[in-house]
Amino acid sequence: MSTTFTRLQLATRIHFTLLRTLGEGIDVARMLRQRHYAEEVASVCRSLSDYALHELADRFEDATAAEDIKIHMEVAAREARAALAQIPRRAPVAQQELAWSQDTSGFGLSRPLQALDTALPAPARISRFSPSNWLGIGRDRQDSAAP
Known about the structure:
This protein has 147 residues and is an all-alpha fold. It is built from six helices and no strands.
């Protein structure tokens, strides 16, 4: 059996404890519906010398606060789901002419890899303007190539 009580159980216990203590009970349904009435009942419970009523009033207010938080979270989750439902699942894709390029973001290859491999020129002769010559790398190759 769970040790946590629902608001209905707490309101019922307050009703019967007040009935036993004062000879008069409360309207449990009204206490669950109207926050102002519940606050009045809690203040009556705290004004009496019965410690059990003090504890029941505190527990009822805690349960009410927890239920309010739960309701607010459910509303926020429902609103978030509604907002997400309005966002398109996938951005529209620009129409491409070639089949291989139809599902790209625009930042990919401009040609298929096979076309890139055949389009590369043959390696040129090392010139002195080559980056490999900037730090003296490759000088011995030029020196040995010259007769």
